[in-house]
Amino acid sequence: MRKITAAFNMTLDGNCDHTVPNPDAEIHDHYSQLLNNAHALLYGRITFELMKFWQTLLSNPSEQQSHNDFAKAIDKVPKIVFSNSMQSTGWESAQLSDKPLHEKIKELKNGEGKDILICSRSLIIQLLNQNLIDELQLCIHPIIAGPGMMLFDKIEKRIDMNLRKTEIFKPGTVIHYYIPIRN
User: Fold this and answer.
1) Residue segments in the chain with a per-residue pLDDT below the cut of 70
2) Quick check: pTM over 0.90?
């Protein structure tokens, strides 16, 4: 069985707006490795549209090698997009889901091979509420952002977690790896 992993960036105060943190090369390298070990990336429409930025670096590389490496890593991993309004993805390695989220997750989980990464706030919330995430990787940036999009504002009930491990990066960014406690 595959593991369903949610990996997301946030600030100390829970803000997960993609414009707030500014990941350095070390964080980009970490995420490139995570992508290289993924079977598929699952996105909602809004986050998917934001991530299409990385397509531009394939034909117009950045001066930062870690950005180029991340762009190559994200391009090669199959992406599944959950959207009611999109007609096509515009990205060769991305497809629209043919099933509702919970059905697609169960289908993917029952397969063999690499993990499935959940990469959108909306999908993380839905799957946490349905008890369908096996690991939560929170990359917490040392920023207090103030008002903005909060990662866990739509969680329906308490979810207890066990901390599996922690990684510390420069300049104080920390990734916590949590396993939900199943009751």
Assistant:
1) none
2) yes
